[in-house]
Every structure is written in structure tokens, then in C-alpha cells.
Amino acid sequence: MKITGKTIFGSILMFVGLSIFFGGSLGGLIPTLIGAWLIYVGVKKYDKGGKTAGVILTVIGVLLVVQSLPFLLGIACAGALLYFGWKMLNGESAKESSGRSYMEPNAASNMEEPLHTSFDQEWEDFLKKK
């Protein structure tokens, strides 16, 4: 899947929507967005020659973003849980699959060599001992 602006925006909407749906609020998001905007404006001013105003705006923006760090970590943790939960529910796609999948007993194998694990080796050794 290509990561485009549309997919990023859709993901953001999904996470904000889930947060609001499950009792969250946008209270932590507003200072974060203001801080990110101040960082952007400060860097632009610094590049255009307004070094003092640029540094001041950037520092204020960084302080706002760092203050909302627990909120951002919570969102990141929730996003990771949603991602891995979704991945577990839907399973791996055919492209990401490592070749290990359930096969019918009479189905022809598409693997070049059989898959042997340490358990297989231990089981064979156990059977030889009997």
C-alpha cells in the first residue's frame, strides 16, 4: 500500500474518531497542533532572516509539543494496538506471508524444501530412542 496524503489523513481521522468514540477528547490535540504550527512558523521566520522571532516562536512551539508528550505517547500506543489488533484480526496478506500457511492434506506443496524446526528434530530423536 502506498502511503499518500490521503492515507495519512484517513488514518488521522480514524484515530481521532476512535478516540472521541471511546470517551477521549480533543483537549490534548489542540495544544499539539498549535505547537507544531508555531514550530513551522518559527523555522520559516528563521530562514527568512528573522532569527530572534524565529527562535522564540520555535521554542514556544517545542514547549507546547513537549508538554503534550504524554498525550502523543498515548495516541501512539493506541495506534500501535489498533494496528496490531487489525493485523491479527485480518491475518497477513499474501504478499507479506512467509510461505507458512494451512494446507489441505492432499494439496501439493509449493515449498521447495520441507520446513524443519528444532521441535521436528527433537521429535525424530525421541522416536529413534523408542
Automatic annotation (TrEMBL):
<keyword id="KW-0812">Transmembrane</keyword>
<protein>
    <recommendedName>
        <fullName>Protein liaI</fullName>
    </recommendedName>
</protein>
<keyword id="KW-1133">Transmembrane helix</keyword>
<keyword id="KW-0472">Membrane</keyword>
<feature type="transmembrane region" description="Helical">
    <location>
        <begin position="52"/>
        <end position="85"/>
    </location>
</feature>
<feature type="transmembrane region" description="Helical">
    <location>
        <begin position="12"/>
        <end position="40"/>
    </location>
</feature>
